[in-house]
Amino acid sequence: MKNIVILISGRGSNMEAIVNACQQEGWPARIAAVISNKASAGGLQFAASHGIATAVVDHKAFDSREAFDAELARVIDSFTPDVVVLAGFMRILTEGFVRHFDGRMLNIHPSLLPAFPGLHTHQQAIDAGCKLAGATVHFVTPELDHGPIVAQAAVPVLPTDTEDSLSARVLTQEHRIYPQAVRWMVEGQLDVGRDGKVCHRRGAPQVVWGG
Ligand code: GAR
């Protein structure tokens, strides 16, 4: 049985999708903990109501990124994670923290990386006149919103789209690809080549097209 630790900063809808898929599909894994840097994160209530351990490590209580990341890593490690899942965890992570979880930490970002790392991805896609937008699940490296790509979902950008409407369309697809990618991790289905390219061992499609 693998241990999954999920980090959130807000509503936690991706975390919910992963918790539900893990329970309903009977993964060989358990959600060992949901940890937030904000006590007000809505997702903590959902996790607690599903009998999942929760913890808060408030970044404001620390003088430096290094001190926060050291405490966060200590709390994560207390749950002996096989996989660490960043699900809307809105903190820039230090290189030491990322290296500590090298090869076992995933992130989801709401753009077709490497386009539009950082914030306001949907508005950037609209402003650039993109015809496609989407989301990317990737292994975490020290560079923000960067790393070997596990799965991507693409959706059309409509002429009438606002940041909110596009964000909602992409989020629906995030809830498809993120549980799938985490499941692949716990089942040991992913190979990362020396070239940094990620392949599913049995050739499962790593791209999803959403409407
Ligand atoms: C998601 O759209 C996720 O892709 C994004 O934050 C949202 C969290 O929503 N993450 C990033 O922007 C990371 N750079 P959720 O709390 O409902 O899962």
How would you describe this structure in keywords?
binds glycinamide ribonucleotide, 25% strand, 211 residues, alpha/beta, globular, single chain, 6 helices, Rossmann fold, 2 domains
In short:
The protein is an alpha/beta fold.
Main sheet makeup: 8 strands, mixed
CATH topology of the largest domain: Rossmann fold
- Ligands (ions, cofactors included): glycinamide ribonucleotide
CATH architecture of the largest domain: 3-Layer(aba) Sandwich
According to DSSP, the number of beta strands is 10
Helix content: 25-40%
User: What is the C-alpha radius of gyration, as a whole number of Å?
Assistant: 17 Å
Shape: globular
The largest sheet has its strands arranged as 3-2-1-4-5-6-7-10
CATH class of the largest domain: Alpha Beta
| Average of per-residue pLDDT values | 97
Q: What would you give as the CATH superfamily of the largest domain?
A: Formyl transferase, N-terminal domain
Through-space gap between termini: 35 Å
Write down the domain tally. Answer: 2
Number of helices: 6
Strand portion: 15-25%
Low-confidence stretches: none
